[in-house]
Amino acid sequence: NDSGVLDSGLSAVAYAILGTVQSSQPLVNIYAQTEVRGRLTLVSGEPVMTSEVSGATSVLFTPYRGNVIDLYDGSANWNRFKFSELSVPVPASSAVYDVFAYQATTGAIALSTIAWANETTRATNLTTQGGVYVQSGAQTRLYLGSFFGSTAAGTTSVNYLNAKKFLWNHWNQVRTPLLRFGTVTSTYSWAISTGATTRAAANNPENSISFVNGLVGSVRANLITAGYAQPTGTSICTVGFGLDNSTSFSLNCTRGMLASASTEATPVSANFSGYVQPGKHDLVWLEQNFVSTTMIFYGGNLANLHVQGITGEYDS
């Protein structure tokens, strides 16, 4: 590095190969921040799905804004690999599953799945390696996300529908809409005259939005409906959301109230906002009538002016 010259008496040099055992100098981890340039998807080549998918029998991990992934080697280092689209079949049993990436004995990058004990509890926990989520007891397996596989007609598959988002990404999340326009059966209107009983809209718990998340996540939802009283007295009703139940309102819900003695339909709305624990969840549209006078609710198109239902979003 200077202007001098080598000593003319230099007759030998020493050299060494750097390794992880008895290294000549400390190794430097050049991957200060873990890179995972991919997303779980149900459609080949579409890391961000823009349309509904029903009955997918494979989960894919496809490149997104790059095609590299860092994996822990089980010793002391994170190694970086290039990858092409990977695939893993949906297991045969209906359950929530975690998805992991790892380096197979062949050297190729592969995917694996582990089923949860139930829809809200893992059978095998996650742990962290250098602050990164990996499989407990197998830190070489990097956590990518989770999905819910449901069984119908003998085939277990994954749905990604407006009202049922059952694939969740831990890496490279995007804002994901949750939509339930009208009721699940397209019911135009229905009566509620059950006193103080809280129930699902139209007495059908499928009037809900459903989703899966692998870690604690923020969920937001808005509900709009309309109602009017039968001409026999004043009706007092409330609407809102129940998290994983159809008999009580969530504490994270701002309920809408409607008191009416009129036969003219009046809009009423409610909101949900909160952090939801990992697992498969249903956010159910609820209603309650405080008096015996019948209230009529709408769940479809009201005189071509309003469309009732749920709009929500979460990161996935």
General description of the model:
The protein is an all-beta fold and 316 residues long. 0% of the residues lie in helices and 52% in strands. The chain has strands at 38-41, 53-56, 58-63, 68-72, 78-82, 86-89, 95-103, 109-115, 126-129, 132-135, 138-152, 155-160, 164-165, 167-169, 175-181, 189-192, 198-200, 208-213, 217-229, 235-243, 253-254, 256-260, 266-276, 279-289, 295-298, 301-302, 306-307, 309-315. The chain is elongated, with a radius of gyration of 27 Å. The two termini are 52 Å apart. The mean pLDDT is 88.
* Radius of gyration from the alpha-carbon trace, in angstroms: 27 Å
Task: Describe the main β-sheet briefly.
Answer: 8 strands, antiparallel
N/C terminus separation: 52 Å
Q: Could you tell me the strand content as a percent range?
A: over 45%
User: What structural category arises from helix and sheet content?
Assistant: mainly beta
What's the helix-strand series? EEEEEEEEEEEEEEEEEEEEEEEEEEEE
Instruction: Tell how many strands the DSSP assignment holds.
Output: 28
- The average pLDDT value, as a whole number, equals 88
Segments where pLDDT lies below 50 for 5+ residues? Answer: none
Which geometry do the CA atoms define?
A: elongated
